[in-house]
Structure formats: C-alpha cells, structure tokens
Write a structure and sequence with these properties.
Elements lengths: L8 E7 L4 E7 L2 E6 L2 E5 L3 H15 L5 E6 L4 H8 L4 E5 L3 H10 L9 H6 L4 E4 L3 H11 L3 E7 L11 H4 L3 H9 L1 E12 L7 H13 L2 E6 L6 E6 L6 H8 L12 H6 L5 H4 L3
Parallel strand pairs: 5-6, 5-8, 6-7, 8-9
Antiparallel strand pairs: 1-2, 2-3, 3-4, 9-11, 10-11
Helix pairs in contact: 1-2, 5-7, 7-8
Length: 275
C-alpha cells in the first residue's frame, strides 16, 4: 500500500549525503518529504510537534536542558525554548536538509538564524552529527538532560540491520536514558497505530517497557502518529501527573488539553494484546 501526493510546485529537491529531500507545495501547504515519504506539512505540523513534545514537557520534573535528535525543521527545539528550556542541543546528521528546511519551510528555523544556531550563541545549539556519536560524547562529558526527544523518519520494519534502524533499537534507547537527569524523560516518534502498519509501534512499545519503569503512550487524536515517553522512575499515575502539570506549563498548546491527555494515552488494543 502506498500513499500518493499531488505536488503543485517543487520549491527544492535534491539528494543529500543521507536521503532524497523534496520540499513542495501540496494540498496541505508547503510540505517536507524525505525519501518520498511525507515528514511534515504546513497544515498539520503543529499538531504533530505538540504530540511529540507536550507530554514530555508535562512528565519531566523540570525543563531546563533538552536534547532533540532529528526533527530537521527546528520546530521541536523552538517549542522546548517556549517551554522554559535554558539550553537546547539539536542534533541532526543532515545539514543540507536542515538548511533547505530553514530556507523553504514557513515553520521552524529561518535561514537567517542558522549561523547563530550553529555557533551556539543562543539558547539553541545546532550540532551536525549523528545521534549515536553525540550521545557517546554527552556521556563522556557528564551532560544530563531533562528531556531527550528522538524524531526521525519511520523505522523500517523490514530492515533490522540498517544504520537508521539502530537509532530505534534498545541499545540506543538505553543511551538516551543514560543521559537523563533525575526525573527526566525520553520521548520517541514511534510510528502509526493503524492495524495494518503498526509493526514498528509494537516493537517500540516493547523496547520502552524493557528500558523504563514508566512508559506513557500518546496517540495524537488529530494525526496518524503515535509517541512514547519513558521515565526511569516509577509513576503510579502518569496521566494525572500530566493533568496537574498542564496549567503550569510555560508552553501553551493549541491541540492538547485535559481531554486529549485522558483520551489519547491508551495504546491500541492490538499493541496491548500482542500475540
């Protein structure tokens, strides 16, 4: 099964060192495609990014230092600043994609900002590196984060040995967990809950339950993606923790409220009742 998109105008297209990138106008506004798979669109990106970031903001004890791996558009990093982070390390291996996004997407980073971000002159520091190596350096330096967010193109269900899939594996999740400060949270984009394509979500759910004592699922009620959040410490009622934290959160979401937190945190039946 494949999804076809009508492209009305190509704004930028090219092969980077890591992937084929297209930025084009579609029925959902300016849209980003990596290896011909939609990553974000002008119309739906805010719903997606809030589902990715807001539960982590609410589950973590504090939001001072944040690490974002992937998420080339830069929206996640900016949300972290709005949530009160005083330092955000944004790690993306594909500098050509980041720069194309800043040049052509009407959301996220702006091209004029990149020099300052790359030099680390402000709250956000942009690192062109792979996530695995960056975590190795962070562990060696003793760096600790209140929130680690991994936002990558989908795990490939039929290619367990790929370099890309290593960043979804248990060992990588453990590395993310190892750089957490006390009360910190790891959040992952975990795939689709749709029953005919939920293989990678099921795998991710099982991996998180292997690593973390508290695993919280959040399935966006206005997008077709699911997200997982892990804490080392046991929380008896993570949903209530989020409900209590929401009014105090410095970031004010427009697509997540109390009802969303109650209604979107039960994993799909087929994930909960695996054969």
């Amino acid at each position: 099964m494949r999804r076809l998109w009508r492209v009305d105008e190509v704004l930028w297209e090219g092969d980077t060192a890591y992937q084929h990138v297209t930025i084009a106008r579609t029925g959902q506004g300016v849209s980003l495609f990596c290896d011909d798979d939609r990553q974000s669109t002008e119309y739906s990106q805010l719903v997606y990014h809030e589902a990715l970031m807001v539960p982590g903001f609410l589950l973590a004890d504090k939001i001072e230092r944040v690490l974002v791996i992937g998420s080339s558009e830069g929206v996640a990093s900016k949300m972290a600043v709005d949530a009160g982070a005083s330092r955000v390390d944004h790690v993306d291996i594909d500098h050509e994609c980041v720069r194309a996004c800043a040049e052509h997407l009407p959301y996220g980073y702006r091209a004029a900002e990149l020099s300052e971000l790359e030099q680390g002159d402000g709250t956000i520091t942009l690192h062109y590196s792979d996530g695995w190596s960056f975590l190795d350096r962070a562990l060696g330096n003793g760096d600790r984060y209140d929130l680690v967010v991994v936002d990558l193109p989908d795990e490939r269900a039929d290619d367990d040995e790929s370099q890309h899939n290593r960043l979804y594996g248990v060992e990588f999740i453990r590395r993310c967990q190892a750089v957490l400060a006390p009360g910190g949270v790891v959040g992952f984009q975990a795939g689709s809950p749709t029953v005919w394509r939920n293989t990678t979500l099921t795998r991710a759910y099982n991996r998180f339950r292997t690593v973390f004592d508290t695993v919280t699922y959040f399935g966006s009620d206005e997008h077709e993606w699911s997200f997982l959040f892990g804490r080392v410490e046991q929380l008896d009622d993570p949903i209530n923790v989020m409900l209590e934290a929401l009014p105090e959160c410095s970031y004010e979401p427009v697509s997540v409220d109390d009802a969303s937190l109650i209604g979107s945190t039960v994993p799909p039946y087929s994930v909960r009742h695996q054969e």
